[in-house]
Amino acid sequence: MAHIIVVGNEKGGSGKSTTSMHVATALARMGHKVGALDLDLRQKTFGRYIENRKAFLNSQGLDLPVPDYHDLPEIDRSSLQPGENIYDHRLSAAVATLEPDSDFILIDCPGSHTRLSQVAHSLADTLITPLNDSFIDFDLLARLNSETGKILGPSVYSEMVWNARQLRAQAGLPPIDWIVVRNRLAAQQMHNKKKMGEALENLSKRIGFRIAPGFGERVIFRELFPRGLTLLDLKEVGVEHLNISNVAARQEVRDLMKALHLPGVTVNF
Fold first, then answer.
1. What is the rounded CA–CA span in Å between residue 56 and residue 61?
2. Sorted alphabetically, which PANTHER family does this protein's record hold (predicted)?
3. How far is residue 132's CA from residue 152's CA, in Å, rounded to a whole number?
4. What does the alpha-carbon distance between residue 140 and residue 232 come to, in Å, rounded to a whole number?
5. In this structure, how many other beta carbons lie within 10 angstroms of the beta carbon of residue 237?
């Protein structure tokens, strides 16, 4: 069966689609068959990223690996079983279509709570939660005492992950490997960065996730989107010499892929 990777966070602007595209493309470049779904049915940023990639490669006559992206299929409501949710059916049908030909299926969730996102989390073998390195985003995971910094309890998102874990356990499936990815880390060791690190370490022990380094705030990510490219593709499109920022960003992708510990994956770029 395909290993399902879900990229989820109920807050927009955390870098979910950038993370999704780089993880999916990295796996494809390493020779794995990668299926891809975007559950943000309005914006479809991840889906458009892959569509941009196909269009650019076709216009330039380039042959680079592309994740196998599918839209969720439309379902005739008359075909549903009594009490069956149409979104559950659409997601199950999409996964069933991709699974026979995929080593990995990467699902990018919207930055809000939806039925599709909730169901996708219960399917996750690996859950990646990108998080901007600020206490505004930390509130997604847990509530803090503003004076003492003490963790008061989990947030609604953490509770959703807990429920997804319970559903998997009841179905006899392996537990979710949950990785919180710290994006937009400041280059210097600022006081806030240290406090965030300590708070995440404490919370990780309580609710069970691993912490991985993510991506810095770099213009290159936004510049590559219209062509559907990633930092791993630059040499193939004629960029012979990477600047220091691009080299550092490429190392960030490499470090993240190693930290994910995906089955059968040896990071070789």
1. 8
2. COBQ_COBB_MIND_PARA NUCLEOTIDE BINDING DOMAIN-CONTAINING PROTEIN (PTHR13696:SF96), P-LOOP CONTAINING NUCLEOSIDE TRIPHOSPHATE HYDROLASE (PTHR13696)
3. 21
4. 30
5. 14
CA distance 54 to 64: 9
- Residue 122 CA to residue 42 CA, distance in Å, equals 22
Token code pair at residue 14: 């955390």
Task: Express as a percent the part of the chain with pLDDT over 90.
Answer: 63
Which residue type does 253 have? V
Structure confidence by residue, pLDDT tens digits, 103-161: 999 999 998 889 999 999 999 999 999 998 888 888 889 988 777 778 888 898 999 99
Contacts of 168 (CB under 8 A, 6+ apart): 122, 174, 175, 176
What pLDDT sits at residue 72?
95
Task: Kindly report, residue by residue over 188-202, the tens digit of the pLDDT.
Answer: 456 667 888 888 998
Closest CA to 66 of 25, 102, 18, 107: 25
Dihedral, 183, 187, 189, 191 alpha carbons, nearest 10: -60
Nearest to 180 by CA among 253, 130, 252: 130
**Three-class HEC string of the chain:** CCEEEEECCCCCCCCHHHHHHHHHHHHHHCCCCEEEEECCCCCCHHHHHHHHHHHHHHHHCCCCCCCEECCCCCCCHHHCCCCCCHHHHHHHHHHHHHHHHCCEEEEECCCCCCHHHHHHHHHCCEEEEEEECCHHHHCCCEEECCCCCCEEEECHHHHHHHHHHHHHHHCCCCCCEEEEEEECCCCCCCHHHHHHHHHHHHHHHHHCCEEEECCCCCHHHHHHHHHCCCHHHCHHHCCCCCCHHHHHHHHHHHHHHHHHCCCCCCCCC
